[in-house]
Amino acid sequence: MRNTYIRIILALIVIIGLSPGLSAESGRVIPLDMHLIIDGSESFQNSKNDAIAWINSQIVDRTLMDGDRITIWRAANNAQIIFSGDVSGRKEEIKNVLNALVADATTPDFSGALTDAASRVTRVSQDRLSYTMLITASAEGLEQTLTGGARNLLRWFRSEKYERWQVLVVGPEIAPRVQQAAASLMDFLR
After folding, report:
1. What is the pTM for the complete model shown?
2. What's the whole-number mean pLDDT along residues 136-165?
């Protein structure tokens, strides 16, 4: 019985991990709450221009649409929100905030940003999607998060690596959903 449960969980993880990314172009009609955490450490400085160009192209232009909301954290020595609000008619403002991001901290506070993002995700209404992304070039900061108090918030993630930086699509709210789906499936199979 336990092996079956584990197989079901692993199958759900694979399905979630392989599902395509969000795109407004795909005809998405459900509004999105995007939680974007960006490395604010000196390690990110060398890859900042490439990463911000990717964010502007793939997230701001391609994924976000009117009615969506975005919260952006600069994970510096202390995590701080640098933008939060509705996307409608504000894409250029969002891009300007991203382009002005300063990467000069000694260590990124991913834990603080992830904890804040997770608390916001739990408040998202059921009629909205929630998506959390962490952009990093700092292995040291990421290692501290993986071994620290926020490690449970990184329990479910998918990573895309680029030359000098990476994107982690984080699912802090997935664990209860996976458990609920597995329980429903088990009830169905009985």
Report:
1. 0.72
2. 64
